[in-house]
């Protein structure tokens, strides 16, 4: 018995030492971290923030190409925001602005001037300024984000009209701008003027496939950020080539059947009164067709919804003739808008951002193999036919506005 | 070894005169050799022998009298307070006068006086004859009365035990909403009759044991003959026979003396105050051990899942039962890993917490001077102290302690910035979880292991918690209770026994007894 104990003792001591000496390596209490929740990338202009200490020997060797904004959440002020302990309220976030040429170096630079360790696992949004996106290949710009072990693929990517730095500010007290952007991106089901959220993972695959795509564009006016339309990234150059307005984006969403909710407003007939259609269900099918060398697409768009507003008098919804008239007006409106959007992406930008290529790849893989190298060019030559069906299923408890 | 033991006994003997000296104790153990044989001629000397054997204690009554039907001396020896006085008076009355009214055989002395008294005189229901004074003395101490008669070689032992016992009340530790409001009390015969009443079947078998060298106590092993695996009964009996201890105050002693692994934190015998619980365990093919002087019966063999069960699971409909079962498994997990998972998230993996929660935790932890492990330790220890203090104090005071303690911990500690409010939530959820486990012993086991898990979490984060979980699992699958694997029916995997595991399937489906118990008669329901 004693001998067994003497043999066990070194083992136990070794085990305890192993645990105690190797433990706690990764220990980092949550309150000692600097949570990076949003980052912005802009083209650097004249100002070079972060270089104020150059005279004293601060800084490192770099070119000032990028203006980098790092948004830190300040937990102590988030907790205090609920309490309202009088006086003026401290903002629950802090933006650190730096210039440089490497996103990684810039992201770690604040460790010299701020307490706590950088913690990037909760990064939520990445905003790229218009000027930078137009001039720099996005795959080059974002490669550090794709490589980094801490950055998640769920980080939402936006293009700022104007400067990204400004969109990461807010006037609302007690609010973190990055979270606000994430929450707005969630409203996809509410409106068709919003792009389904694009995250780093999707952007990565689009860039790798060299296909054109859309990014949600946002703009800041007087400290208020709004989502407006979309930015078109060209697959070939991997740079921003232009924007779609909110209405153009909506037209495109109707064409591709993305998003739900939203409305169609049409002014019809001699009364020139508006009527509004509330979209309940939106479906679209893209059928590619190959005849010899010609590629064309048939698109069927189906709307289901209700007549939610009709200013015409009497505007008798009990009469199917009237409803047909209204449906026709909506139909024309949709066609008009989809035409405009299609024209823009097909001819002005020559970028397939609506997923036509993907349908061709699925139906005609051998054709796709031939055309995929220069698909955007090919797309601009393709003929796109589409049909729109609009059904008014319901008009609520309002029939005619005149007593008979 | 034996020398040391003797020394110890001597010490006790010196201090307490009434205890047996070591020599006598040894003599007593060799029960095969009759120490003193009763000499038929000398009644007084026999009585003296009896007196030395029993010792002159104030509660021992020696009542000498003359028989009514023959000019013979007699004496009743009994212990005051352990015997039924009315019955003794009745017996003595019949011995002293009874014969005068109904004249006996002309020559009672000529015929066997023992048979005569047994058959014609004594109204006691159970009579036993012993031949040695020592045997008689032992019986006297358990409440029987010894009847010595001049000229009769045997000593008659009369069944007269009767003492004050607590009524049968609802067990406090195992209260149910639905189910019999009846629990065991401290009297073995009451408990046995309770079981008899629950299982009216000749298959229900009780086997008597006397446990304890110095102070004997009756112990009964109960099982259903024809259902139980005889192997388990034999195992229980060998282990009981191996017990060599001077005194067993409570069935907890038995539990610790016969359990499989004394180093394991898990209870390997189930204790219960509920007769219905014992009865259904017996009918499942388990063995129960009842000890005199305690309301806690022991059930073997035990699997871990049994510790998360309550009789109510079966009394309520199966939806409710299953839901409660699942809840208890969840509760067991929380009570084991609650604080450790919190520690590893907060100290090692803040990336795994949802962003807004991470920020709010970070915000509330601002200004807390300790790492989360120390914080959790302070709170856990405080809760344990509170629990212990509340338990030992009289009820009204205990409530006050709970209130004041809860207030101090919940409110003041947070205000003072010693702990964060979220830690208070974690610790209290964990504490409530551990109280929701129906078996007190299982709750304690998980509470002990919780501290180990917290330590591992503080050292290695979630990786450490996983390691600790694996350690428990290794121990868990190795552990057996009387030959039945502790983790069954999960390991070894027996699908048919899963009907009564995480879910409590409808009774309609439980047609067989648990396979893991290897019962002789598997059919439970047609």
Q: Main interface pair? A: A-B, 27 and 27 residues
Strand content of chain B: 5-15%
**Strand order of the main beta sheet of chain B, please?**
1-2-4-5-3
Principal-axes shape call of chain B: elongated
> Which series of helices and strands of chain A comes N to C?
HEEHEHEEHHEHHHEEEHEEEHHHHE
The average pLDDT score of chain A comes to: 88
Radius of gyration of chain A: 28 Å
Largest sheet of chain A: 9 strands, mixed
Query: What can be said about the biggest beta sheet of chain B?
Result: 5 strands, antiparallel
Helix content of chain B: 40-55%
Derived from helix and strand composition plus strand pairing, the structural class of chain B reads alpha+beta
Helix content of chain A: 25-40%
Strand content of chain A: 25-35%
Protein name (chain A): Spore germination protein
InterPro entries (chain A): GerAC_N, Spore_GerAC-like, Spore_GerAC-like_C, Spore_GerAC_C_sf
Main location (chain A): membrane
Organism (chain A): Lihuaxuella thermophila
